[in-house]
Every structure is written in C-alpha cells, then in structure tokens.
Fold these 2 entries.
Entry 1:
Amino acid sequence: MLKLPGLIDLHVHVREPGATHKEDWDTATSAALAGGFTTIFAMPNTMPPIFDRDTLDLGLASAKEKARCDYAQFLGAGPNNANWDVHPDLPPRAAGLKMYLDSTFGELRLDDMTLWMQHFATFPKHLPIVLHAESRTMAAGILFAEIYDRPIHIAHLSLREEILIIKAAKERGIKVTCEVAPHHLFINKDLTGFQNLSGLSVGHQEVRPRLTSQKDVDALWDNLDIIDCFATDHAPHTIEEKDSDNPLPGFPGLETALPLFLTAADRGRLTVDDIVEKMYTNPKKIFNLPEQPGTWIEVDENAQYEIRGAEHFSRCGWTPFEGYQVKGRVTRVVLRGKDVYKDGKVLAEKGFGQNIRD
Ligand code: NCD
Ligand code: ZN
C-alpha cells in the first residue's frame, strides 16, 4: 500500500451551472475522490460563464450544496470585467483568473490585447492568472508576465515549441509556471497506442489543445522537470455530443490520471515523487493553498486492471483510455479525518467539500 497526499487538480470543467447533463458538482467531486483528488479547481466556462459577483455566487452556491471534496472556483476574464480594482473583494474568493486567449468551448475568449492589459493591471498580483494560450499566443502571454512583472500559469501546454519557450522564459527568471494534461503525454494524434478509440466516432478525438505529434509528446517527456503540474483538463461531454456532426472538444480525466501516471512510474518513465510534486506540492505552492489536515490517499500499487468508462462516477459515461491496462488503484481517500472514498464507494456526503478560499 502506497500512502500519498490528497491530490490537487487545477483544471476541471464541472459544468455547473448550465450543462449538468454532462456533469455537476456532485458527479465531478465524486469522480475526483475516486481519482485520488481531494481538491479541484473549477473552470469558469459554464453557462452562464462565471465572471462577476452574481455568477460567482451562483457557482459557489451549487458547490457548497453538492461538493464532496474541497474546491475553488475560477473567475473568467471577459470584455466587461477588466476592472478588478472596482470589486476588490471578488478575486480573493476565487481560485484565480482564467483568461481564454485562444478559441475553445464556451463564450469566454479575449482577442483584444488592450483587454489583456486591463486584466493584467487590475487582477491582484498575489493571485494567479491562468492562460489558455497556445503557440504564439503563449509567447505573447509570457511577454505580459514580464511587462506586468507578475506570475502567470499556462494551462495544458502540449507542443514542443511551447515547452522549449517556457524553459527559456524560466531560465530568464520570468514568473511562469505550467501544467500538462495526461492525454497530451499518453496519446498522440495518430492514436499510436490509442486503438481503443477505434470503436468510437472520430468526434471522440476532439480536444483543445488538439492531440499532437509523437515529436511533441516526446518533447514533453524529455522536459519533465520544466512541467510544474499535471492537471487533467477534465472536460466531459456526452457520447451523443461527441458523436454529433459538430463534436464538442474535451476528454474526461479525473478518474484515469493517477492510474496512468502510476503505470508510467511502474515502467520507469517518472517516479512517484515526480507525481506527488506535480499533483500536490507544486499546485499547492503556485496557488497558495492551505493545508488539508488529516488528509491522504491510499493506493494499491500492484492492482492491475483495465480502465472502464462505464464504471466511472463522471456523468459523461466514456473515457479516451477505455480498455487501457493500468497498474495502481486508489483504494481509500481520507479528507479532514473522514473516510470519503473506500473500495469503489464514495462515502462523503454532498456538501462535505469546503471552498479552500473561504
Ligand atoms: C474544454 C471544455 O470542454 O470546456 N474543452 C477542451 O477540449 N479542453 C475547454 C478548454 O479547456 O479549453
Ligand atoms: Zn479546460
């Protein structure tokens, strides 16, 4: 039995409010516990998006009622809320600010760099700004970190050029950190080793950032020390939505991340210490999270099994890793002294989860 700290997932699409047919605070936090996470950060691209007092109150009210693990909610950067100095009480209630600088699922997208300037100038410096910014947009985001002399965190980077630029920026002392999603480390766009998707429609492969070439995947593994965090970008859509003519981008990930990384550790691709660093220590440091006393997870490192989406707590009912042979199963999760997950069952009540920014 392996005992690890309660893991932190910085990037979860909980889907509430507005799309609870895909997921809600109950199913997302159940999936989190089953995956070994005791804290999740919820993304703001909901319907409506979470970007001001009313929508933050709305999102946090659902979380308070239903969450079974601890959480924080991101605010989204939009065209009409680049004035955080006018509402100084709002940012400290949030995980941080999420800025969508490249296109993805949802309405939050900022093209106008003068709006980036206002968000960078007014969002408090001690709270992280997280950027969805790919390729050259990412380079522009790093320049903003330098100009405004404040930390930024790059979400789900996926390309060789991106990890190399981040490496260079870090060497120069620019305050940039980054996360990588499991699917960009374990799947490439040619689906090598991903044959299990063959039974599913091509829409199931849609994700933002897109799946990349093996050259990009290799560059991420070769620069593991530059990757601060692993974050799932858990982005559930239903099978019908993935099958449609206009398939929605996103993969579920909460229940598969740790088994995939433990399997990679078993094969010598990284160490268990690397996993703890990137799924607990660094997220905690970057986002300045409090201790969770009396909190740990237990893992049976020798349990071998095949991943089955139908057995998962996520409402979406599928996983891109269907049929993957993995080694390592979460058997028990203890959160603040209470057994919240044990032997396949979620034991935490709805509402047991706490807002870590309260
Ligand atoms: C995310 C979603 O569905 O909300 N989709 C995705 O492919 N990652 C949006 C996002 O994180 O960009
Ligand atoms: Zn996302």
Entry 2:
Amino acid sequence: MTRALYAPQSPVYSHQVPVVVHTCRHLIFHYGELVLKGRNRHRFEARLIDNIRAKFHHMAIRGIRKLTGRILVEFDSDQSVQTLSDAASRIFGVANATPVHVVGPSFDELAAAVPSLLDGHDFASFAVRCVRAEKRFPLTSQEICQRIGAQVVQLCGARVDLTAPALTVWIEVLSHMILIGVERIASPAGLPVGTSGRVVALLSAGIDSPVAVWRMMQRGCEPVLLHFHSAPFTNLASQEKVMALAQALARWHAPLQLAMIPFAAFQQEIIARTPESYRVLLYRRCMARVATQIAHTVRAEGIVTGDSLGQVASQTLSNLAAVETAVVMPLLRPLVGMDKNEIVQWARRLGTYEISIEPHQDCCNFLEPQHPATRSRASDLVRAEGALDLPALVERTVAGAVWHAVR
Ligand code: ATP
Ligand code: MG
C-alpha cells in the first residue's frame, strides 16, 4: 500500500486511517536530492540524521544507521505504522520512507518474514519490487520477486498486478540484512532543514507567506519567523492566526522561533512624516531593515517574503526593486513566479489555507493609502525616509520583539 500522506499532485493534504493497527520497529529512509551530492554528502546526511532524531524525539530510538544511500532507524519497541507515517511524511531531504521488518541476508529468512508482514492486510492484487544493493546475493532481484510473489499467491490468493497493485511488497537486499515492508510513505524531498543555512522569514497572516516559508524549508533553510503587528490599533486576531500558522509549519520542522514585532510606533512616524502614496512601500522597506538587524543577531543570511510578481500594487517589479535597495541581504521570494491559484493549492496541501482565510487586520492595511504608488523609484523613497530617524526606529522596534519557540 502506498501511503500518499504528502502527495504533491493531490489537492488536499490528507491522512489515511488504516483499518488494522499495524506496527513496526524499523523505518528505512530513502534519499531525494541527496543522492546527487558528491564529496560533502556526509554533511547533509549528518544533518538529516539530526532532523530524524528530532522528529521522533517522543519515541525511544535504539539506533540510527547510515547504509548505502539510505538511513535505517530502529526503535526500542514496536510503533504504530500510522504514527511513523505521520512523522516520516514530514521530513525534508528524504524522498520516501518504508516501515520494514529486518531479517538476515538469506532467502529463507526473507521468506519466513512474509506471513507476519501480510497479516491483517486485505488486498486483491499485489506486486513485489526488489532492489539489491548487495550484488553478491545468490538470487537476482527478478528471482526474488518471482519466488516471494509465488509465496504471496499461495498465502493470500491475491493476483499479481504490476501496473496498479493494491499492495506492494518492497524488498531491499543489503550486505548484512534484508529489509521488507508493504508501505511507502511519500516525503517532501528537497534538502534537510539547516543544510542551506538560516533565513529570517516575514510571516503575515495571509495565504502566501506560509507557503513561501515552507518552500524555503524544502530547500534546506531553517527559518526564523518574524511577524509585524500594529497592536493596539489592530486586534489580536492577526497574532493568533500567525501563531496558528507557525504551529502548522512547525509540524514539518520544530521548534521554530517566532518573533512578534510591534510595528505601530514605526508606522505612525511614517504616516506623520512621509507622503501617503509611499506608505506601504516604506512599511516594507522598514520591515526589511528590522529583519536585517534581527538576521545579523540570529546569524541568518537572507530574508524571505511571500511576494508574487504583480499580485498587488506593492509587488510590481519596480516596487519590489525599490524595497530591495533598503537592505544588503538577499531578499528571497520563492513564490515570485507563481500565480495565486497555485499558491492556494499549496496552502491547502500544507494545511495552512484554512487558517489563513480567517478574517484578520493586517498591519499593512493599517491606514492604507487610497492610491498606492505602483511605479516608485528608490530615490524617491530614500528622500521620503530622510524625514525619519531610521536607526533609532529600527533599534526600538527590534527591542520590542517578543519571542516564542513554536512546536
Ligand atoms: P500573504 O502574502 O502572506 O498572503 P498578504 O497578502 O497579507 O499576506 P502581502 O501584502 O502580499 O501580504 O505582503 C507581501 C509579503 O510581505 C508577505 O508575503 C510577507 O512575506 C510580507 N508581509 C506582509 N505583511 C507582513 C506582516 N504583517 N508581518 C510580516 N511580514 C509581512
Ligand atoms: Mg500576498
């Protein structure tokens, strides 16, 4: 049975509830993009092992072993396959995982494991798939598939279907052991979180930015989340939503650091001293400055936003460029070329959409101008900023941040 817990093609990210509670003590992880890594692959593997350990922190792990192109996790006791699947489907850097039984490297031991493996599974058709990392094994993959296939037919009466089987028996022949399982859990692939360094991510309560954060996590970035709010002029709903969004993202990698940053005083200065049409862009430039300052403290190397080209007035090419000149750090916009529908589909899959669409008051709507500038020049914004004491405002804003570790 292939468990599509994380299914890039499906519109809804969903969990299947098995009828029978199956248990397993071992989980094998197969790499995604990591297989392409050359000499520094061990660095990626070490980080992946740390992340796997953290993901299963609530379960007693007996050992984690690096095998050829895979990682094998052994738990102290049998675990429910459902619990393993939930966690294993949310680890970046692996393509898929399979709960397995581990037997000695002989065909007899493999065959002996089949009845208990199939116990409780009800299926009309099946396929056996085998890979041999150990080429000295006396049987070829094809021979193993045929023999185990014949055994399954005899045991269960199911028919072989190599195209769309109801159940697949996965076998991996390694040098000192053979692994056998019937579940394949799809994972989000990409790179292990942390291998691409740290970024600060501007998280609003909207639809886009949680998706942007997730995509950067998939590329191996560890995000430090920053949310700007306009309390007491806006209500608490946006902060509560952002906390809920951070919790949804933390299901993929935890803990996540989240700073709630009071921005109203800064905004009031902007409103009092600068032209109205530049307001939103000046908010953005100032957010970017505050983010840069925090990035230096937390040793982050980039700033992530959920901007998508042309989505709103502040995201025209010239306005994106005008915001960028306020900071020297790379501004990463993983959604820049995606249209809103695509972003919404991702948000649904990730489970953030339902949270994002709850009504809230965003700090950028706070005294939003009637006619925002769509083609601004950085030089005009710099001139407007001349009326502000930026270093003092940035410093005061950073100092007001309230930090949370989100799980
Ligand atoms: P989203 O883009 O997440 O749907 P939104 O539509 O409210 O939210 P935009 O106006 O599109 O936000 O803002 C573009 C980007 O600026 C956001 O994706 C986010 O990265 C950043 N941003 C906007 N408002 C905030 C905020 N209050 N706190 C932190 N970042 C913000
Ligand atoms: Mg947006």
